[in-house]
Amino acid sequence: MSRLYDISQPLRADIPVWPGDTPFAHEPTWVLGEQCPVNVSRLVLSTHTGTHADAPSHYAVEGRTIDAVDLACYIGLCVVLDMTHAGPRVEPGHLLPVLSESVERVLLRTWSRFPHEEWRSDFTTIAAESIDLLAERGARLIGVDAPSLDPEVDSALLAHRRVHHHGMAILEGLVLDAVPPGHYELIAPPLKLAGGDAAPVRALLRELEQ
């Protein structure tokens, strides 16, 4: 059986979130016991908590909401590229030596070790020109282990806007520490959240048959 890599963050009470965004909470509402036959919980979270898919409506007024995106973008062949040397921004020059002539989905590892325990503002971002290059090679999806394609303090959102221009999908907050660079099958559809600007995903990579 082909190996599966779970590249999702665990959702937990102390998960770091974007500064000012909604803290994650998971609380029991019913508790299994003599007076109750089941456990039931209540969740409070941002649509951008942990590993998630951005909808175009997150950054474009006319953009689709997450329940209307093309799910085919999130399922299929992908390539994982090691960009741990590329900070503070992944430029086309970083990608060209390792990028295939044709790609559908590209996941970029930028952290040497994913910062599960703290919020880090110094994450590696993606140059708008790099998005253009990926689109030229046929990319339908860009995925990153950072919390955003663009810097934390940035209202221009140049990378996001190039993604929207090319009709690509976005995954953010992936955990790629244990994944060797190479080709895989990606399985990461977002939750069908009506009108959502983003949604959590359980992102998986499956090794390809040799």
From TrEMBL:
Top-level lineage group = Bacteria
Entry's cofactor comment: Binds 2 zinc ions per subunit.
- Active site residues per record: H58
Pfam families found in the cross-reference section: Cyclase
Kindly state which keywords UniProt assigns to this record, in alphabetical order. Hydrolase, Metal-binding, Tryptophan catabolism, Zinc
Which molecular function terms from Gene Ontology are attached?
A: arylformamidase activity
Give residues annotated as binding substrate: W18
Give residues annotated as binding Zn(2+) 1: H48, H52, D54, E172
* Keyword Endoplasmic reticulum in annotation: no
Cofactor(s) annotated in UniProt: Zn(2+)
Q: What is its EC number?
A: 3.5.1.9
What biological function has been recorded for the protein in this entry? Catalyzes the hydrolysis of N-formyl-L-kynurenine to L-kynurenine, the second step in the kynurenine pathway of tryptophan degradation.
Question: Which HAMAP family does this chain map to?
Answer: KynB
Quaternary structure annotation from Swiss-Prot or TrEMBL: Homodimer.
Write out the similarity annotation.
Belongs to the Cyclase 1 superfamily. KynB family.
The name this protein carries in UniProt is Kynurenine formamidase
Where does this protein come from, organism-wise? Billgrantia bachuensis
- Gene that codes for this? kynB
